[in-house]
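Issue: ligand-bound run for fe (ii) ion - logging full I/O for the record.

Environment: standard queue, default settings, no custom constraints.

Inputs:
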Amino acid sequence: MNEYPRTKPGSQPEYLYAGYRSTIRRAPSQPLIQLPHTLSELSGPVYGHNSIGPTDNDLTLHFAEAPQGERIIVAGRVLDEDGRGVPNALVEVWQANAGGRYRHARDNHPAPIDPNFLGAGRAVTDDAGNYRFVSIKPGAYPWRNHHNAWRPAHIHFSLFGSAFVTRLVTQMYFPDDPLIPLDPILQSIPDADARARLVSQFDLSLTEPEWALGYRFDIVLRGRRATHFEEGGK
Ligand SMILES: [Fe+2]
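Outputs:
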């Protein structure tokens, strides 16, 4: 049986972070109890591998017309903690439109809904762990966490790797966004390197001439750490 290491201290958001108001009510008030991974977490099936449509990874093709906004390409590799690509990982994304509005009943921010943009997509990684999305750059949007609070532009990511226990939900940010230092959701992650890993990199090699800017975002899932480790094997 393989084991998955627990997350590194400081690499994940604090459960309680006073600057992020909703954590005050939802943070555990008792110390957590660590449970051993269950067999189904380690070996059970994960979702969706057989039902990805050919345009699911292009959020600009889901309606008859193209959505408003700056077209972008977001691509990268899904890796385990040993740096190996994770094939067949399900990568799901959701995001606001170019005006910073979600197509969601609870989003009543007075920015227009784009009839040609749903804001959700998914992809499966190839044999080397690569994924690629085409979308539009999401806008910043206000939220009511504190006075004059605005979320930096971001794309939400959910990943399922080789096992359910590798599930990761995270957000990708864009480089040089002035709202990043002001964002309590991102700043609730104690480790500066871990925060920096959530900021994508502009990548000219992903950028397509006359078409779209490219951003690279590599994602590290929990590594598969074999219980029995052979050294010097042939
Ligand atoms: Fe969001």
